[in-house]
Design brief:
This protein is mostly beta strands. It contains one helix and nine strands, in the order ββββββαβββ. It has a single domain (28-145), classed as Lipocalin (Beta Barrel), CATH 2.40.128.270. Strands 1, 2, 3, 4, 5, 6, 7, 8 and 9 form a nine-stranded antiparallel sheet that branches.
Length: 147
């Protein structure tokens, strides 16, 4: 996956550097991420969520063709739809649902921004995805995972 560079995108999100002016580019499509933790934007303090040794917990995968995602918390399988604006780096959860088993350990911290639909924007580079919420006071920090 190449680095996401806003300067290469045209008004509609097309990669004008490569001569592509036909379609919007969604850099999240077909990727899978694993949560590193929740970061407080002001201090940079990283909170690693428990359980740590759960391979599927706190993973986020994006469908390869549509703006749909699937995620796992500490106890639940969740799915949703989202919309993004590449030019403004906005991210909005438009639909969200899933199982509703009581979360264990830190699971409720992870799912709250999705359920409350408070995720507002994102930043992305080759290895890292940040989903900002609560007026950009916090972000979910994800690292790339092989599918």
């Amino acid at each position: 996956m190449s680095s996401y560079n806003k300067s290469n995108l045209g008004e509609n999100g097309a990669n004008v550097e490569n001569g592509d002016d036909s379609e919007n580019i969604n850099p999240l499509l077909g990727t899978m991420r694993k949560l590193a933790g929740i970061v407080e934007s002001k201090t940079g303090l990283l909170k690693v969520l428990e359980p740590i040794n759960c391979l599927k917990c706190y993973t986020l995968s994006f469908d390869s063709r549509k703006n749909k995602f699937a995620t796992f918390s500490s106890s639940n399988e969740l799915v949703g739809c989202y919309s993004i604006s590449d030019t403004m780096f906005s991210f909005e959860v438009t639909l969200f649902g899933g199982t509703k088993v009581a979360e264990i350990e830190d699971g409720s911290f992870y799912v709250a921004p999705f359920w409350k639909k408070t995720i507002q924007s994102f930043s992305l580079n080759e290895n890292e995805l940040r989903l900002y919420y609560d007026n950009r006071n916090y972000y979910l920090l994800f690292n790339i995972q092989e599918l």
